[in-house]
Amino acid sequence: MSSSYSLLVRTVDEIPWRRSGATQTKNPSLYVAINLDGIEVQRTQTVKWELSPKWDHMVLIPDAAAVLSLRLFHNSSLAFTRDKCLGTVDTDIATLRKLCGSDGDGDAKVVNLELTGVEGAVKGRPAGTISVGLMRSTQAASLAVDQAQKAAENVATTPGLMTTGGIVVQSVAPVSQLNSALASITSRLHIIVRVGDKLATIHPYANIAWKVLTSVYQVSRKQQDTDEKLLKLVETMVEVYSFVSDVDSLIQKIQGVENKLALAIVKQTVECALFIQEYTANGFCNRAIRNTWTQADKKINDLSETLLRLRASFDGGLTIQTLFVSTKMLEKVEGLEQADTLKKLNPVDMNATLRIPCLPGTRQEILDDITGWLTVPSDSGNILWLSGVAGSGKSTISTTVSESFRALDRLGVFLFFDRNDQSRSHPNAVIRTIAYSLALFNPHIGSAISAAIQRDPAVVNAPMRTQFRELLLDPLQSAEQYIQGPILLILDALDECGDPDSRAVLLSLLSVDFPKLPQLFRVLITSRRESDIVDYFGSGFTNMYLDPGARSTTEDVELFLRHELFQIQQRKRLSPTWPGEHSIQSLVDLSGGLFVWASTAIRFMNGYRPDERLEILVAQKSTAGFNLDHLYSVALRNSGPWDTDKTFAQDAQAVLACVVLGKIPMSDRTIDMLLYSGQQGSANVLEYLGCVVHWSPGQEARTLHASFADYLTDTTRSGSEPWSIDPKTHHHALSLGCLRNLHHELRFNMCGLEDSHRRNADVIDMAQRVADKVSPQLLYSSCFWFTHVRETKFDNIILDAIEKLLLGQFLYWLEVLSILGRIPIGTSALAVAANYVKDQNADLEDFIADALRFVAAFGPAIATSAPHIYLSSLPFAPHGSKIAKRFGSMFPGTLKYQCPLGEDWPRIQKILQGHSNDVTCAHFSPDDTRIASGSLDNTVRVWDAQTGLLVIEPLDGHTGWVASIHFSRDGTRIVSGSWDNTLRVWDANTGALAAGPFEGHSQGVVSVSFSPDSTRVASGSLDKTVRVWDCETGVTVIGPLRGHTGIVSSVHFSPDGMRIASGASDRTVRVWDAQTGAAAVEPFRGHTDSVNSVHFSPTGTRIASGSEDHTVRVWDAQTGILLAGPFLGHIAPITSVVFSPDGTRIASGSKDMAVYIWSLQTGEITGTLEGHTDSVTSVDFSSDSGRIVSASDDGTVRVWDAQTGSGLPGRVDGHTSWVTSLQFSPNGTQIVSGSGDSTIRVWNARTGTPVTKAFGSTSAVISMDLSPDGARIASGSENNVCVWDAQTGTLLAGPFEGHTDAVCCVRFSPDGTRIASASQDQTVRVWGAEAGATVAGPFHAHSSLNSVHFSPDGSQVTSGTADNTTHVWDIETGMLIAEPFKGHTDWVASVQFSPDGTHIASGSRDNTVCVWDSQTGALVLGPLKGHTHSVHSVTFSPDGAWIASGSWDNTVRVWDSTSGSLVAGPFEGHTNSVLSVCFSPDSRLIASGSMDTTIRVWETKSSAAVPGPLGDYPSVDDGWILNSAGDLMFWVPPWLRDGLCLPHNTVVICSGGTTKLDLSQFAHGTAWQGCSDPNFRDMKIDTH
């Protein structure tokens, strides 16, 4: 081995540092970066807040001729501030040797070097000194041991009894004995380490043990207690290593059988060392595990005995089965059957069979550094990044490390990525695969991960951040106490994991979240230095760089070449003098230090006539610039008859195209099916290409290195060579091959699924079915045909093939995607097809547009269960859709439905639900692929605009409502403004906080807008100001801008970024100069109420504004002149306005729950989008003007088709907002309902048709009651009570005024002469029903009153309050009958007397129903539990036998009023909270009103003689209708759910129409295949 030196970096002194400014409030946090020839090779640790830190950091200097640079930095620790370089000095080994006054062979003499400032005031001036020392590396290692031995001799012993953390430790041995033993064993291990090149197989393990024990020794010197058993173990190790005396005798001893046994001894020593490290609390757990481990004494004995047995065998030269005792698993885990659960993780199969480790004896220095870092705890974090250029040997190093740790039972995860294998290298599978590997590695981890999946099975498909937290962070933290570290996780070739966009979330997780894992989990990452990876790992982590120009690398390449050439010489029986020293040195020089060059050259020479091939390569040395590309050219030209056989050249080029352009590696059989329609041909070609392609018959063909694919497809590199690949040409051939395979192989029920009641995930042998039934070529073609079409120029042949697929086998293709779990591919593929056929085939273009709607609408059902493509998706598609018309008749055995609202797709495309409170804002990303939304739940969410799924985990951080969000122009960031007075900037791909919080506003931030160049953010606030911020630093660059005299509710940048428009509650619009902050024009005046929203037109010449005055106005942006408007139509305040990107329309959202689309030219409404059930808070157009996204206080985000008119194909009579209350008429023939849409309606209880026109006031009807004779209706609204004629809707009396807040409940007295009202003003009032005079009360409570009800004799009223109690008042005296009834733990939302007046039922937000004695307040029944959310309404049946309850869990339940047992229900069908329930006079029916705007009438007992296929009480789960047994029956799309008529429903009243089902021909369960007409099942359908 070559000589090398070690540099000691000790300390610095006299550093100029001034504590001032925002980032210099303390002393500096200093570290030294050590650079060799301009490349940083190591850093010291960061010492915080010290002006003279002491490091004593030793670093290996392998090249004595290298220029050594020491750079002193202050670690700023701020994300937006770079580390500051305080000084630098350049030197070299020769200079240091002179300064140190020796040849580096003795103790290091420390000298001071002067630092020179590099920036600021000290640039070029003295900047303090740095103290360093120098010695040879071998001396450095020996010195460490010698010093340890000397220190051990001087340590005082302290025998006796001691306590540690309250635990009594007996039999404490003398500390010096342990230290002496540790010093002895480390010195003997060091002998093995020093001769590592001669003991290559043993060296890695000896090095690990040496470093671990040296670390333990350094700490143990300072400790005062030692376990006698631990001392015994170390002394046993010393005894075992007595065979190590000197180098020569050691090498002689370790031969033959002894070599294998010596390896076993050293491996066992590593396990002992790691055990000691943890046992003494010096390891990764940071705890004394002797106090927590079970059977620790037994483990020590086992380790000692195993070592002694191995040594005995070594001494006797015996061959025995290798022993290895691991302490990895501390306790046996019993019981949990985890295998099936863990399969749900769907991990990627990582087969390392073909991976090659380093040649023994090579890469020793870097391997030692890596293993040392991985096994010895430090404060440098738990992630090591190994980087280097292509071909520098990163993967072989990672493979070698993995095998070392596998042998030690410490390899938890080994993932390796390949850009030519997308199926195994996509970032979305990384967390799941890591979790699966760790679960198999350790049963404790497996138990924790399995439990997480059992708690939430959907977590396996959750956003990656959720997967990390639920599947890794939480389980690993819970299992940490049972695990001994280190456990290694390797991610090799991270640069080949997806592309920069797709791996952004993963990189963020690795850099931000993986450091949060327990420190015993060590992570090794290798990659090229791609810019996105450098951004995440370039600083703040331990970095190691593979320099191909380093002398040690060149020496290792030479060793590799010598070894491999000798093997060729032996196998080929060449001359003993072959290849010759000159040839070897020529190859070394040609390699440039790249192992990929050397390995490719070896494979080339290992072919026919290696001597001639060697001469060909050596001759290239005289070629200027000969490099890897030249080697590929030489190897290929000499691999086959490229120039003489055109057929070979064409076939070989086509096969190579499949290898390098294929999205995953393909076998020769798959390649044949794509290229030759099954004729064998690729195998013959691949046999010639062994020097550049790894392949064996029947196996996948892979390039040996990613650089080869780059060479073939880059015409500037491969030029006009016959193997050069034009991607477009070959993508064309691959496109046709894929489409041809799809046509030949797709068919109905590909995998023979027997039962439609089961989800794909519940088919236990699904993976085996796919392997048996889906050929590799069909799998490839199904998933990747469109990726090749996308890269192909238009061609009629491909057009015809696409038409044949989509018009003939579209549903079968979706079936394959379903069983593969790849449904998102469908949308991407169809989008590519739509672009390909555009303006070429109008009919096909229309069909693809319909297919896109189909996949977008039914994606959740298709992804869940393949049979439901036919049983749910196809039958529920609109009857007039092209999909239904094309395929409907082929599948007659499905359900049928009737709905009165037309034949076409509704304008509503998506309903996104997930926020737990009102949604305040929604915005399209610039590329329209994502939607961001903000909510009163304090979060920002990012959704896939096509599938409606969350793209990343909700963005948490704000501590107040999120009022506004906006995407940056490049789509990489999202800014949010909140009522917590701050702005935050988020990474739109990862969800990580990119900047902020920005603080400056004194009140809530209600509007934010990115500048067009994405460098600044404007904000408007409740504090009446506008600010402009630097979006990187958070500094206010302009403002605060003052001028508005009211809340600034909206801000928007002009398209050129030069101006900012703002709207405020002072009724004005203002325009500001975005550079200076000056007013650009006088305020725009005209609105008569607050301006809630402003928006610039795409040209920047106009500004639209929306106001509380219900109007939209359009202004000249330069002058403030009104150009158009006011646009009239909304009947409530306008909350949001936006121009369409094409500049022809304006969309507005309003508190009237509607979105209007206005023609800018005429000011007329061209479209009305209705469906929200509460105020619309935000609207935005997609970039193509084709879609609108809206947010609402109803908690949803909706996506609409912006090109057509109404939100639904049509509407029938029905409420358009919450149904707050309802009652049956006395004869049971009618139902009266009140709603948040300000109307009261009367319905036919049997048919659901309206009996009268809607009537009511101008405000929401919060409560309604029908008089006992059915003639009058009382209603409670804002703060008054009204009485109406039930038949004509005429106002008979009122409004009754007296309440000072909202009236939550009104009730007629039993004789109809009085009305009781309960209000949020904390009072109950009793009114005369005719004149409205107050006849009793007000009765005062201590909290808001939610409900009121008369006793049957009319002498008392009961009320439910927000203080969790129920009251009973004597109307005549106004006195409480008894103390408030206490028992509920949350608001009492509803109360009612029983028909006999003896009891009161109450429903509460604590999810329960209680029954009380009406006079004493004693609890006589309950609490009745079953509801999973607030109980908002309770009512007794007329005979008092039952109690019905309606809940925010969307269900109705019926209870026995005596026993409390459930007698009917739960009735499921509502899609939102149930607000009101009532019985019919005969108790046979229950009516329920809901926040979903519908009324449902239920039979308390089914009238059907035999239950239908859904059973008595079907349930609803995210659109799925489950029968009483919980089986999947069918999935209902969102636009049909509200009006869907289910068993027990006699009628459903819905403004979207009632959907009635015909299940008479419905084939399902094990008979589901009967849905298909056998005549069509397997035939190739004619597309014309």
Automatic annotation (TrEMBL):
Keyword hit for Repeat: yes
Presence of keyword Methyltransferase: no
Renumbered ranges of WD repeats: 912-953, 955-996, 998-1039, 1041-1082, 1084-1120, 1127-1168, 1169-1210, 1212-1253, 1296-1337, 1343-1379, 1381-1422, 1424-1465, 1467-1508
Organism expressing this protein natively: Mycena albidolilacea
The protein's name in its UniProt record: WD40 repeat-like protein
Domain of life of the organism encoding this protein: Eukaryota
Keywords, ordered alphabetically: Repeat, WD repeat
Annotated ranges, domain C2: 1-106
